[in-house]
Amino acid sequence: MYIKVREHHRVISKAVYIATAITEDNRRTILGLKIDHVESYESWHSFLEQLKSRGLQSPKLIISDAHSGLQKAIARSFIGTSWQRCNVHFKRNIFDKLPKKDFEVARMMIKRIFDAVTIEDMRRFKDELMSKFEDDSKYEKALAILEDGFEDTIQYINLPENMRIFIRSTNSLERLHQEVRRRERVIRIFPNTQSAFRLIGSVLMHYEDTVYKKRKYLNR
Questions:
Q1: What is the CATH number of the domain that holds 29?
Q2: What is the pTM of this model?
Q3: Domain range for residue 132?
Q4: Is residue 55 part of a domain?
Q5: More confident of the two residues 119 and 160
Q6: Residues 62 and 133 reside in one and the same domain
Q7: Contact, 109 vs 129, CB < 8 A?
Q8: 165 in any annotated domain
């Protein structure tokens, strides 16, 4: 997410980096916060290395959007860790490329793919969709997106079933962003980066204490 900050008598945008996690005992926690100038590979790599220096080791899975700099930073910082594209964002990208009319069958088949509970069914449903619409040029762009990002978007299927609903998207992080935005809109423009870090940090600490700790164990 981006915020506005005064710096050297100018108002500029700065990127806010926030990482959350689910621990081995199924507890959500906030891992870290960073404010930097732009979203880039260098900034993401620096943030991930900061998390490693504080003790984060070899996460089983990292879920994010498909920002190329972030993907590269994850691959460099956490060798052997699987990366997953956010399921919700991925489906939205596909739906956006469907034709404007007569798309209901395709949309239903796409949803069926990601509602499946086994990787074999997911791949089978995906192949059925591709076969049905591959000769229709109106579906070319949507099918290309599906083909390109499919395997990266179903990594959560390799983890226990009772965990999958919590790790197939970044929705929980977006809810946290909304809470930060609610407080940030009151200020609109931060007087400096330090004040932004203090306020956002306090919001995250409060959220951890009042939301995450009250829902210590994630049960389906």
A1: 3.30.420.10
A2: 0.82
A3: 87-158
A4: yes
A5: 119
A6: no
A7: yes
A8: no
19's tokens: 């990482």
| pLDDT mean over 189-218 | 87
Residue 220 forms part of a structural domain: no
**CA distance linking residue 191 with residue 56, whole number of Å:** 32
Residue type, 214: K
Q: Verify that 116 and 144 share a domain, yes or no.
A: yes
- List Cα–Cα distances, 125 to 19, 115, 146, 161, in angstroms: 33, 10, 12, 19
Among 220, 200, 153, 219, which Cα is nearest to 30's?
200
Question: Where does the chain have alpha helices with state H?
Answer: 41-53, 68-77, 87-96, 104-115, 119-133, 140-153, 161-167, 171-187, 193-207
Shared domain check, 72 and 8: yes
User: Do 98 and 71 sit in the same domain of this protein?
Assistant: no
Task: Report how far apart, in Å, the C-alpha atoms of 32 and of each of 18, 22, 114 are.
Answer: 6, 13, 30
Give yes or no for residue 220 having a pLDDT over 50: no
> Is the domain of 174 the same as that of 152?
no
Proportion of the chain above pLDDT 70, given as a percent: 97
Work out the mean pLDDT of the chain and round it to a whole number.
Answer: 91
What CA–CA distance (Å, rounded) separates 49 from 24? 21
In this structure, the answer to whether residues 27 and 134 fall within a common structural domain is no
Per-residue pLDDT for 160 more than 80? Answer: yes
Phi and psi of 67, rounded to 5°?
-60, 125
In this prediction, residue 219 has a pLDDT band, given cuts at 50, 70 and 90, of low
Total structural domains within the chain: 2
